[in-house]
Structures are given as C-alpha cells and as structure tokens.
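User: I'm writing a tutorial on reading structure tokens. Could you give me a worked example: one chain, its sequence, then its tokens, then a sentence or two explaining what the tokens reveal?
Assistant: Sure. Here is the example chain.
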Amino acid sequence: MRNDSRKSMLYVPADKEKMLIKAAGYPCDSLIIDLEDAVSPDLKALARENVKHHTGALSQTKEIFVRVNDVDSSFFEKDVQTVSMLPVDGIVLPKADPRAVIMANEALDKLDTANRLVVIPLVETARGLVNITQTISKSDRVVGIQFGAEDYTKDMDVVRTVDGGEIAFARHLIGLHCMAAGVQAIDTPYVDYIDQAGLIADCESAKAAGMKAKTCIHPAQIATVNQAFSPSDAEVIWAIEVFEAMRIPDNQGKSAFSLHGKMVDTPIMERAKCILQKVGRLP
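And here are its predicted structure tokens:
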C-alpha cells in the first residue's frame, strides 16, 4: 500500500554508529540505513552488527528501511538474514529489475516468516527503467519505486547536471507508472547538500514529474524536502475555498460550478479534498 504521508527519507551509513544514534532526532519521515554503497566491503559485517543494535530504538519513532546489497553480491543473503529478524519496515533493493525483485521476494518468503517486510526497488539502470512495470508487479511487497539518478546517468553514459534535464524523462516515467500501479514514486537525492536553492528547484522538478517523496543524504536537507512535498499555505487556502463552495446548497450534487470566475469540476473537487486530507483539514 502506498504511504502518502511519507515525504522525506534520510540515508544513514550503517557503519557510522554515531550517525545512527543521532538519526532518531531528525525530522524525516523515514530512515534508510545503508548497507550498500556507503559501506566499504571490509566494513559490511560491522555495519550489519550496527543495524542489529540500533534498529530497535530507531523503530520506535521512525519508519525504518535498510538498503541491502544487490542480489548478485556476496553480501545479499546475509543482509536479508539480518534484516528479516529486526523490527524494520522493509528493504530498499538496489540495481532493481524484475529478476532482482523476484529473487528478493523469494529470499524474504523464506526468511521473513511474519510476512511483514515491504520492498522499495531502487531503479538506477536503463534496464530497470524500461522494465519498471514488471518490476512493480513481480511482488506484492513492492510499495514504491525509488529513482537513483547518479547510477542511472552513469549507466546511460550522460553527464549529470544541476538542472537535471537528463533525468527528466526517467522521473516522469517513474511517476507515471507508480501512480498507475498505486505505489509511491520516491525521488533521487540532491547531492549538493549545501545548495538549498538548488534543492528547492530540484524538488519542484521532481514534484512536477509525479514524485511524492524524496531521499536525502544530509539532515540539512530534511526540512526543505518536507516543506516542498507538503501542500503550501496558498494551496490549502484554495482547497478550503473549493470545499466550502461545494457545500453551498446550490452547488451540492453538481458535477461543476463556478468559483471566482473559474469552473470547478469533479477532478478539481477531488484535488481539493486530497490537499485537505494531507494536512488533516478534511472534515
């Protein structure tokens, strides 16, 4: 099931114990404890021990995901064995494509006896992108798709730019297929954590493509991402006006009516309700 309340997901390296301890106090909706790219091969075992030690406390206040190593790595089986015994919500699966999701699902079916862990495939290759529909459909554990722009542009052999024109198509495709499948589209991190203006612009581009949440690589990004993926004050005021107009006796039961000289039809009414629901203002 898609979690529409999730806006920000912070990556935390599993081998950095101090970072894991601090993570409980960050205002992100979810934590992604990273066993993959952020951890060197010689520290994978230590990272798994840290995950065992800290997820209990972190899960009391946060939604917890663990990014495991890819299915073809020598670390994948041990990662899943570790995660399946812990109070976490699910895994982020790197290098995701239909085959990878099938393998991850089979591993979880064997080890996750409570049948509770969900999967967020990380689409970061051309193969992953063109097979996204199958990737989503291969397991009912899949609740979202995360986009990984750095690996995707490397795979495509294109230059990664600040304005992100080279990833626009991928973002839109992910947003489209996730919406059609009823799972959440989660955007790639913005790697320059000092550039807040650039982060805001990147969030707007992601939202325009249908992304509903964004991953972060630094705590300084969380507040900006939370605000960007929440309805603005202007949107809330507009939604209240629409909802109040819907309740006017002359408008009740109508499929369309006029408000401030503009037509309000069923899709606009539903959009207003959605905004109010997100901010807890829907009666």
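What the tokens reveal: DSSP finds twelve helices and ten strands in the chain. The beta strands are 8-13, 30-34, 63-67, 90-93, 118-123, 144-147, 184-187, 213-216, 256-259, 262-265.
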